């Protein structure tokens, strides 16, 4: 019995030492990756983390996503961020992060899906609502644009971009009174603003 307990104790100690060594190796790799990032040696930073890469590590995948984005490897960046999203499906952090390389790739459909995913987790996020509104606005889908701009405007009623884009959306939808009100409010924030003045001139 004593021999069994001693054997178990040895296994526990060895496991603990092994985990400690792994943690230290991982910390060193992350530290070095920050040092290389600071001097813009992104490929070296990536190689440093590749040496300790684990597909089940959220932290490594999101860091690799960022480093690949900085290195201009946008497709690779998206792949790592997708892995991070799969590992932490309740987190908005990797969803915001993946928008950067998707924008470089001009993959607007995936960007739209990403904002919708963010809003499923955080429905009152003003930035996500506003940016999604912009996507629909530039597609001339003013009905959907208004829906998201309205949410953002309700959260930040005196936010300049919210007021101005809501004004233009209402203008294109034929809601002249709402457009006039919002253009005038935009001018309270930014007197003599050309876009707001143009909008009012088109209505009057």
Low-pLDDT runs of 5+ residues are 3-21
Largest sheet: none
Tell me the name of the CATH homologous superfamily of the largest domain: Tetratricopeptide repeat domain
Number of domains: 2
Derived from helix and strand composition plus strand pairing, the structural class reads mainly alpha
User: Which whole number gives the mean pLDDT?
Assistant: 91
Supply the CATH architecture of the largest domain.
Answer: Alpha Horseshoe
CATH classification, class level of the largest domain: Mainly Alpha
Rough shape? elongated
Radius of gyration: 25 Å
CATH level 3 topology of the largest domain: Serine Threonine Protein Phosphatase 5, Tetratricopeptide repeat
Strands, total number: 0
Element-by-element helix/strand order = HHHHHHHHHHH
Output the number of helix runs: 11
First-to-last CA distance:
95 Å
State the share of residues found in helices, binned by percent.
over 70%
How much of the sequence is in beta strands? under 5%
């Amino acid at each position: 019995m004593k021999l069994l307990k001693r054997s178990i104790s040895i296994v526990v100690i060895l496991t603990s030492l092994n985990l400690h060594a792994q943690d230290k190796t991982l910390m060193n790799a992350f530290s070095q990756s920050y040092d290389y990032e600071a001097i813009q040696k992104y490929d070296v930073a990536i190689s440093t983390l590749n040496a300790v890469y684990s597909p089940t590590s959220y932290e490594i995948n999101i860091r690799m996503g960022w480093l690949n984005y900085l290195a201009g490897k946008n497709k690779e960046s998206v792949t790592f961020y997708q892995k991070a999203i799969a590992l932490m499906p309740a987190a908005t952090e990797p969803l915001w992060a993946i928008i950067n390389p998707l924008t470089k790739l001009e993959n607007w459909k995936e960007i739209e899906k990403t904002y919708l995913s963010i809003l499923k987790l955080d429905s009152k996020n003003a930035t996500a609502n506003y940016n999604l509104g912009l996507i629909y606005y530039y597609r001339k889908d003013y009905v959907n644009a208004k829906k998201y701009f309205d949410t953002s405007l309700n959260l930040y009623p005196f936010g300049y971009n919210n007021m101005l884009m809501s004004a233009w959306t209402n203008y294109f939808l034929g809601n002249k009174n709402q457009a006039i009100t919002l253009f005038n409010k935009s001018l309270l924030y930014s007197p003599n603003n050309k876009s707001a003045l143009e909008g009012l001139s088109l209505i009057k």
